[in-house]
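for the recovery benchmark. tokens below, seq after
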């Protein structure tokens, strides 16, 4: 495929992997765009025309998009950032004569536990109890309004639980196991609408390449129907934990602790990401050894009281496998990586990243 593709939010989990795979697959020109220069550190191994621009800065974005035919909007952040970034990005793309904008939304617009029969035509609601869901709904609606002028083609992708190396669902769950805050509601028997990151990026490439995709929205997921226990078990086993010990009943109410609110905040995540990898690895390994010693001495496997978030409770009790049939029919989408292989790569990355895994698996790095 020819043409320059800009990846906005290139330092994030999905954005960074998008740049990597496009570059490694031989895409002629890939332009990472980040908010600050130091965010380009992980991508500096590639010789690319990187740019710095805030997703709310129309002038800076217009300059960053100059000469690009495609833009992948993979900006992450809090609810306000999600909503506020939509209009500047679209208007900058129009000003720079961008042909197509790929917007990374989320299957969460349908809720964490959507009703049976949910698909791309299902009505969206902005009165959900989870702010992230409402923000994504508002962002999609605003993008739909803006794109009525026809200045830029828009394709919206709604991936499910995007996991893999460097994700919160992989490294984050490992961290929770280590610090004793991990849990699975009702044993994690609910359906997990997983979407391995490389499968999502395969869908992004198709959304760029297929002419008929313009103006359409697609749910994206893995081929297999899996449970949350299926997703978490390989990580737990790699770290020497038994999932049975972190199963809890569904709560009657939700009251997140200050610790949960801190860990889920963007500021906390930014602070953790700012630490050098050797420091993060050392802290994780040291804490893992302390936890193992504590378990051996006391028999304890988790904190006596775990505060359950509403988001996790709904996710862990989901009973609906979201369809990606529309993406298959219109984009030719087929998951490129099996769930089994995705888990192998994820666990291999944990070892590479310095987590105290039981083996020395050689997964994706």
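predicted aa per position
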């Amino acid at each position: 495929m020819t043409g320059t593709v800009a990846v906005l939010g290139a330092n994030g989990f999905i954005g960074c992997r998008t740049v990597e795979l496009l570059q490694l697959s031989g895409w002629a020109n890939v332009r990472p765009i980040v908010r600050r220069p130091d965010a380009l550190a992980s991508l500096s191994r590639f010789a690319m025309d990187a740019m710095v621009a805030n997703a709310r800065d129309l002038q800076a974005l217009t300059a960053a998009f100059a000469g690009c035919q495609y833009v992948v909007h993979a900006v992450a952040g809090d609810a306000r950032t999600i909503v506020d970034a939509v209009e500047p990005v679209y208007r900058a793309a129009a000003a720079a004569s961008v042909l197509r904008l790929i917007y990374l939304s989320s299957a969460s617009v349908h809720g964490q536990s959507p009703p049976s029969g949910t698909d791309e035509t299902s009505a969206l609601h902005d009165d959900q109890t989870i702010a992230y869901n409402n923000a994504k709904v508002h962002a999609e609606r605003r993008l739909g309004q803006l794109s009525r002028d026809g200045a830029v083609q828009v394709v919206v992708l709604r991936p499910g639980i995007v996991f893999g190396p460097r994700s919160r669902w992989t490294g984050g769950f490992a961290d929770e196991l280590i610090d004793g805050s991990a849990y699975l509601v009702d044993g994690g028997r609910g359906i997990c609408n997983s979407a391995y990151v490389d499968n999502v990026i395969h869908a992004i490439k198709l959304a760029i390449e297929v002419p008929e995709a313009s103006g359409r929205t697609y749910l994206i997921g893995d081929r297999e129907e899996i449970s949350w226990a299926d997703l978490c078990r390989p990580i737990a086993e790699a770290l020497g934990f038994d999932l049975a010990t972190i199963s809890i009943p569904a709560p009657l109410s939700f009251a997140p602790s200050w610790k949960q609110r801190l860990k889920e905040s963007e500021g906390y995540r930014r602070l953790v990401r700012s630490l050098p990898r050797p420091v993060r690895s050392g802290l994780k390994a040291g804490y893992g050894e302390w936890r193992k010693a504590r378990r051996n001495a006391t028999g304890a496997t988790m904190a006596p009281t775990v505060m359950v978030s509403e988001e996790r409770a709904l996710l862990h009790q989901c009973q609906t496998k979201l369809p990606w049939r529309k993406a298959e029919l219109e984009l030719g989408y087929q998951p490129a990586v099996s769930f089994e292989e995705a888990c192998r790569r994820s666990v291999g990355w944990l070892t590479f990243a310095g987590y105290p895994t039981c083996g020395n698996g050689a997964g994706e790095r």
